[in-house]
Amino acid sequence: xxxxxxxxxxxxxxxxxxxxxxxxxxxxxxxxxxxxxxxxxxxxxxxxxxxxxxxxxxxxxxxxxxxxxxxxxxxxxxxxxxxxxxxxxxxxxxxxxxxxxxxxxxxxxxxxxxxxxxxxxxxxxxxxxxxxxxxxxxxxxxxxxxxxxxxxxxxxxxxxxxxxxxxxxxxxxxxxxxxxxxxxxxxxxxxxxxxxxxxxxxx
Length: 203
Description:
This protein is of the alpha+beta class. The protein has one domain (3-177): NADH Oxidase. The protein is 33% helix and 14% strand. The protein is built from 8 helices and 4 strands. The chain has a 4-stranded antiparallel beta sheet, covered by helices on one side. Helix 1 packs across helix 7, helix 2 crosses helix 7 and helix 3 (55-62) packs antiparallel against helix 8. It is globular, with a radius of gyration of 19 Å. The two termini are 35 Å apart.
């Protein structure tokens, strides 16, 4: 699939068939997603793949029981065979920007640490990687949706033996669309075109 086609057809899918993916497909997609930009070549982004019954741990910790019982979308989402967790290491970026070629940036461990960063590059790099995974899913004929990190992060990362200092940016839920997806009401907020959002020379 051409990149232009993948970009123009990509959308968030929230209703999946339970069928497992081909062996190693999810691993191949996340490995490609790690080809995204990395500030200072820090490589402070990682993924944890949950497949099959392992995905239940994500839903248990990242959502509430009340939501799971009341949401019409939960059963459709939970059928997805893969949940890929996007992780980033703030400390890795702070250390990298304290190295000799980055001295003077004011972002190293002896120059303010995490609090000195006006824009946390670790979240930006995690977002780049997540976008590549979403596009890769389209290219592979799959559906996917990005879900942000709202709750349950410490317990989930502890359960999965994620080393201390890593943050959960969000999750990409992937699988084969079942054809019963209900479009998000958010789509009606404004036209899909970039009218009014792209400016030349000045705003």
